[in-house]
Specification:
Length: 309
C-alpha cells in the first residue's frame, strides 16, 4: 500500500503496530502510520490521497482501544510539528499534539485559568474531540475555534459553535484532522493556579488508578447533561456507582479487570488482548442494564478490526 501513497516530508511506516502507542498497550497494526512534518505536509498528503483510503487521526492513545486485527487505511499521528503553545492576551493557541497537562501548566504560569486540563490525559486535539473536562469545567467552556485539515486537504478554521459540543461529544466533518485550537482563558493568579493544580493531582491520585494501565474513564456518566457538558444535578448518575450496584467492581476476563480502586476504569492487568478489554466492557454494560435498566455508553473509543473480521 505504501508505494501508492503521496510523497511526504514526514514519515510513512507500513504495518506499524499501534499497541505501544496506546495507554492500554493492546491492538494490531495500522496499514500505514503517517507522522506529518507540519500542517503543510499533512494538507498536501490529504489533498493527494485517494478518496477511498480511510484516515484515522490518533493522539497519544490515552482514551483508545485498538482492536487486535488492526486499523485499515492511514492512521495519522501528530507530533512535534503540532505541539506549539502561544499566548495573545487571554487567548491560548495550542497545537493538537500539545499535552493537556502541559497547556494547563504553561497557561497557569502566564496567569491564565485552564487548570481543569491538568489532570486530563491526552492532547488538545483529543480534548476538543471529546469535549474533555473535569471538576465542573469543560473544553466547551473555553474553546473559541479549531483549525482543521479537511479530507480534501483544505485548511479551515471552524468556530466552536460548529462543533456541536456536548457531554463527551463533538461533531467534526468526516475525515477532518484537528491541528490546533484557540482557547479563551480567564485570568488568574499564577501561584493560586499552581496550587489548585497540585490539589487536583493529589485528589486524582487518591481516587483513580493512575499507576495502572488504563485508558481513563471507560463509560460516560449516564444521563443528565446539557449541550455544553454541564451536569444536571437531578439526574447526575455516576458510571462507577451503577457498575458497583451491578456487582462488577473487580470483574475479570482474561487479562482485563474493572479496577478495584475505581470501577469505571477498565484495566489491562497484564497480558490482556483488546478483545479481553472490549468483551469485559460489553459484559459490564449487559450486567448494568440487567440490574438497573441503564445502558452505559462507551467513553473509550474503539477502532479497527477484531481478529478474523
Amino acid at each position: 500500500m505504501i508505494e501508492n501513497l503521496p510523497q511526504v516530508r514526514g514519515t510513512l511506516t507500513q504495518d506499524r503496530s499501534l499497541a505501544d502507542l496506546t495507554w492500554m498497550r493492546v491492538g494490531g497494526p495500522a496499514d500505514v502510520l503517517f507522522q506529518p512534518a507540519d500542517v503543510d505536509d499533512l494538507s498536501a498528503f490529504m489533498a493527494a490521497l485517494a478518496p477511498n483510503v480511510p484516515v484515522f487521526p490518533m493522539g497519544v492513545g490515552s482514551n483508545l482501544i485498538v482492536r487486535d486485527g488492526g486499523v485499515s487505511g492511514v492512521v495519522i499521528r501528530l507530533g512535534r510539528g503540532f505541539n506549539a503553545i502561544s499566548f495573545d492576551d487571554q487567548v491560548v493557541t495550542a497545537g493538537a499534539a500539545a499535552l493537556d497537562a502541559h497547556v494547563a501548566r504553561k497557561a497557569a504560569a502566564a496567569g491564565l485559568e485552564l487548570t481543569f486540563l491538568r489532570t486530563i490525559p491526552g492532547t488538545i486535539g483529543g480534548a476538543v474531540r471529546m469535549n474533555a473536562g473535569c471538576y465542573g469545567s469543560y473544553t466547551a467552556d473555553v474553546l473559541q475555534s479549531v483549525a482543521v485539515v479537511m479530507r480534501n486537504g483544505a485548511v479551515v478554521d471552524l468556530p466552536a459553535a460548529d462543533l456541536q459540543l456536548a457531554y463527551r461529544r463533538s461533531s467534526l466533518p468526516d475525515g477532518a484532522v484537528i491541528v490546533s485550537a484557540r482557547l479563551l482563558a480567564p485570568a488568574g493568579d499564577a501561584d493560586a493556579l499552581a496550587a489548585r493544580m497540585d490539589d487536583q493531582l493529589a485528589k486524582r491520585d487518591a481516587t483513580q488508578p493512575t499507576k495502572d494501565r488504563t485508558a481513563g474513564s471507560t463509560f460516560r456518566n449516564p444521563a443528565g447533561y446539557s449541550s455544553t457538558g454541564q451536569a444536571d444535578d437531578v439526574h447526575d448518575l455516576k458510571a462507577w456507582k451503577v457498575i458497583d450496584d451491578a456487582g462488577m467492581r473487580g470483574a475479570t476476563l482474561g487479562g482485563a479487570v474493572m479496577n478495584t480502586k475505581h470501577s469505571n476504569f477498565l484495566t489491562n492487568a497484564g497480558g490482556a488482548t483488546a478483545a479481553d478489554l472490549e468483551d469485559l466492557g460489553e459484559l459490564v454494560r449487559k450486567k448494568v442494564y440487567d440490574s438497573s435498566g441503564i445502558t452505559l455508553e462507551w467513553e473509550i473509543m474503539r477502532v479497527g478490526h477484531r481478529n478474523g473480521s
